[in-house]
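Long-time lurker, finally posting.

We've been working with Peptidase M23 (Ruminiclostridium cellulolyticum) and I want a structural starting point before designing mutants. I don't trust myself to interpret raw outputs, so I'm hoping someone here can both generate the structure tokens and explain anything notable. Sequence follows.
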Amino acid sequence: MARTKFFKIIVCFGLIVCILAGSTAILLRDNTGQVLSVSNEGYIKWVEYNVPYEAMEKALSMDVKSHEKPVQLHWVEMLAYLATRYGGNFKMYKSKDLDELEAKLNQGQTMEQLTANMKHYNYFYQAYDAILGNFVGEYDIQVKDPDNSDKTIWQKKYGLKVFSPIARGYGFSHYDDFGTGRSFGFTRKHLGNDLMGSIGTPIMAVESGIVEAMGWNMYGGWRIGIRSFDQKRYYYYAHLRKDRPFHGDLYEGKIVKAGDVIGYLGMTGYSTRENVNNISTPHLHFGMQLIFDESQKESNNEIWIDLYNIVDLLQKNRSAVTKDEETRDFYRTYDIIEPKMNYHF
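Top reply, 14 upvotes:
Generated this for you. Predicted structure of Peptidase M23:
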């Protein structure tokens, strides 16, 4: 009876997640209470990411400002804590909730203590860590030498180490179109965020990883798929430019760094014929698939998340580019070095 009452209270928030006590199973229910899917395999099968920009930006700032202080705040933990407190409903978000959490942590309470009685914290932490876990950290980046503008120097930094998919200096617009209907080929939902821009705009690797797929797809046109080194995130960049969609140095299996040029914005796709512009408006389709188990890579259990607010957050870090007139390709202006990554390939 208590469990039924709990579900009735939470169900008003829409789809809910319940971690069964003593089990790794995850239940999904719709607003009628009907079970949609169950996983007993020990991995997450569904994630709804609805954290607003304001919450991410503030948690990120707290994390960065606390670096190397006695209490290091971790933005993923803080956002997972709020998600658990809100039952996944970030319409309840208030800035003061993060302030209060920061105060408790700085006063000596640990996240383990604060979440000890939160049954669903582990789920939200795993889900959010899969999305944001490698976004922040230490890295070295080239910057202009303040004493000689013609030279660069290396600078150590801590903070956002992923980049916008659109190069610095290039404009774009976007709106929250995740989940809207698409009909070409078959009726389906739009599983990404469309960034409207100009043909030829340099497209950047958001995160370091390995090029897992590139080529033509009748739906996405010329497209690129890049897997993060921890294999949890698959980035999908689609509708690239006709004739010269990819950077000349790109190939399947290549390792790319966050902020590298990988291709160019276009309007290809929605065609059974290769290299055809059949999209009405030039744009980049940008998507992120979460992979908790390899069986989810290409199946009915794929997990794609709404990137609208994440795209806004990524504008804090845009990679500058320089054109090579001989090759006609663009290259990043300032290089980056990340700490040694764990390769699992």
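Before you design anything, note these points.
The CA atoms of residues 229 and 342 lie 7 Å apart.
The chain has three domains: 2-39, 53-136, 173-337.
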